[in-house]
Amino acid sequence: MAAYPQDPGAPDAPYLTFWQERHLCTLTTLRPDLTPHVVPVGVTYDPEARLARVITNKSSAKVGHVRAAGPDGARVAVCQVDGRRWATLEGLAHVRNDPDRVAEAVRRYAERYGRMPRPNPDRVVIEIELTRAMGQG
After folding, report:
1. Which is a Pfam family this sequence falls into (predicted)?
2. b/e per residue, 67-97, with b = 16+ CB within 10 A?
3. 78-92 pLDDT tens trace
4. How confident is residue 6, by pLDDT bands cut at 50, 70 and 90?
5. Confidence of residue 3 (pLDDT cuts 50, 70, 90)
6. Angle, vertex CA 25, rays to CA 67 and CA 30, nearest 5
7. What is the value of pTM for the model shown?
8. Got the DSSP string for the chain?
9. Do residues 36 and 103 touch, judged by C-beta distance below 8 A?
10. Degrees (nearest 5) of the Cα angle 37, 40, 44?
């Protein structure tokens, strides 16, 4: 993975491999006063659907920030770092509570992180429609 933009729907092999490895990530959302809110999360990347997914509790601050942006969605970024390697995905986030979408996000999380998340009846998924990908490896 070289230092250059990627097509989020057609990443090169090293970029995709990096997103398949187990890494803690960060999600950056904007508060209503436009200051950044950065929190650690697990992220899955689905280039075919041009989506990144974050599972979380419906009452979390990050969900509140995305919802506060309105029906058009919120501009967000997810990032992961491993030494000198890093990768960022940017896009438009929406909160989804559809059981099938949440189940798919949980399945992908378990696949990437090697364990099922604990049960959570208040779980939702933040789906990020990807517009940009970049990184350096």
Report:
1. PNPOx_N
2. bebeeebbbbbbbbeeeebbbbbbbbbbbbe
3. 999 999 999 999 999
4. confident
5. low
6. 30
7. 0.95
8. --SEEE-TTS--HHHHHHHHS---EEEEEE-TTS-EEEEEE--EEETTTTEEEEEEETTSHHHHHHHHT-TT-EEEEEEEEETTEEEEEEEEEEEE--HHHHHHHHHHHHHHHSSPPPP-TTEEEEEEEEEEEEEE-
9. no
10. 110
The total number of structural domains that make up the chain: 1
List, for residues 47-96, the tens digit of each pLDDT value.
Answer: 999 999 999 999 999 999 999 999 999 999 999 999 999 999 999 999 99
Which residue has tokens 């000198």?
84
Residues for the chain: how many in total? 137
Which amino acid is it at 42? G
d(CA 113, CA 92) in angstroms, rounded, equals 24
Q: Which domain holds residue 93?
A: 4-136
